[in-house]
Amino acid sequence: MTKEEIIEKGTVVYQKAPLMNDNPMHYCPGCSHGVVHKLIAEVIQEMGMEEKSIGISPVGCGVFIYNYIDIDWQEAAHGRAPALATAIKRLLPDRLVFTYQGDGDCAGIGTNETIHALNRGENIVIIYINNAIYGMTGGQMAPTTLLGQKTVTCPYGREPKLNGFPLKLTEIAAQLEGTSYVSRQSVQSVAAIRKAKKALRHAFDVSMQGKGSCFIEFVSTCSSGWKMIPEKSNKWMEENMFPYYQLGDLKDE
Amino acid sequence: MGKIHGAVVVDTERCKGCNLCVVACPTNAIELTQTEVNHKGYPFCHDVRPDACIGCASCAIVCPDACITVYKLKEE
Ligand SMILES: Cc1ncc(C[n+]2csc(CCOP(=O)(O)OP(=O)(O)O)c2C)c(N)n1
Ligand code: SF4
Ligand code: SF4
Ligand SMILES: [Mg+2]
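A: This is the predicted complex of the input protein with iron/sulfur cluster.
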């Protein structure tokens, strides 16, 4: 059987979600951001919420997400996405409102915003991309950088006496009265991606049911910041990030 | 039972040669180009052993840039 015959007579088992446009994404090769973008587009489409979703993009590598997924977007100042999401969801409660934020954004400069929005129980979803580094600005140490992990601002590895400990923001989110669903996922393999997609769908559903805030972390890679090829980054993440940032649902009420 | 045939179509201009699809493929049907590059200068994914493809979509699911469309056909 020829390839042409398979294409002509066969069925499409996977294609780029139509909600994702043809603009080439600016991310480095192998970056986890792209995989999470695909899941967001797929889930919104499966929910039929294409015309009713509003995303808030961050400062960080994810800043240009509004160029790739054709829904409504608002761009926030660094770390301030939860405040914008709060306002938008309160004014337009029938919309699916979510933020998309890196660890520097969500767990660094914006920690205060993040915690208070979740603690108020705003019916929003915070999508938190934790690659343990400030990717966009050239790979500096983030609050989430692992002990011993080398970055350009801790070239000998993060040292707790000098730099403190990596922040588990997701565990904090789970403790807050306002959160309804809190989960930590990853996107390095087919199995992980399938699981992550289900978690994302659940978070979006819960927020639309008005049950409170949802917080979903994606433990991610940053090949450029980590100075590893994508394949090795995934391995490094599995070996070093997963023992500290343990995957799974932390709260589902 | 009929044999399952798969086929992949790669948007080679969108591809950045990250190689994650090649790692994910259970049948070694795809590889990155060795000498050819796209207009951005990246080597890109192509099906070097198209007959091996079973249409499992693993490559497409892990692709961060949504470059791969997968087709499947069951032979009667
Ligand atoms: C108020 C302000 N302070 C600092 C910066 C510089 N800055 C831009 S992105 C960034 C960190 C981004 O890291 P992260 O949120 O982890 O996103 P990533 O790029 O890793 O996905 C910083 C500090 C800024 N743009 N605005
Ligand atoms: S710098 Fe890191 S987070 Fe940013 S696009 Fe490159 S790999 Fe992704
Ligand atoms: S569909 Fe499956 S078998 Fe075919 S190239 Fe992709 S990963 Fe390999
Ligand atoms: Mg980061």
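Chain B has one domain: 4-74. The radius of gyration of chain B is 12 Å.
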